[in-house]
Specification:
With 128 residues, the chain is an alpha+beta fold. It is 26% helix and 35% strand. A hairpin with a 2-residue loop joins strand 3 and strand 4. Residues 1-23 form the signal peptide.
């Protein structure tokens, strides 16, 4: 999974986690900023996340804002971790807002041998 796919998965997970709605229909998307995001908004969020993940400092953050839509967000690394199988990991905090709706989620992600970031689903992480 490349970083772009990871960030799209994170974005969708943010929608699912922040909505609290059932998967019975897609109406729950209206309760999340991502429902309103344009491709340009998604690109800005993805670029911010990539910059934070690739930065050497373990507690970096990056804000983004699209002046055309007025939507914005912040991506923050909550530090370095190590998975039980030896991968370098981080916890990534995403905050987004659009049309007065805000969402915030934290995702554990690990860097593969190929250099791609993946969701660390089911992995036990230890703070480095």
């Amino acid at each position: 999974m490349n970083t772009r796919v990871l960030l799209s998965a994170l974005a969708m997970s943010t929608v699912l986690l922040s909505s609290g709605a059932s998967a019975a229909g897609l109406g729950f998307l209206k309760n999340s900023p991502l429902y309103y995001f344009t491709q340009a908004d998604m690109k800005l969020m993805n670029e911010a996340a990539r910059a934070v993940l690739d930065a050497p400092e373990p507690h970096g953050q990056r804000e983004w804002k699209n002046p055309k839509t007025g939507y914005s967000g912040k991506v923050e690394s909550l530090g370095n971790f190590r998975s039980a199988d030896g991968e370098t990991c981080r916890k990534l905090k995403l905050w987004n807002q659009a049309k007065g709706i805000e969402s915030e989620s934290v995702f554990p992600v690990c860097k593969t041998e190929k250099g791609d970031w993946q969701l660390a689903s089911g992995k036990e992480l230890t703070k480095v």
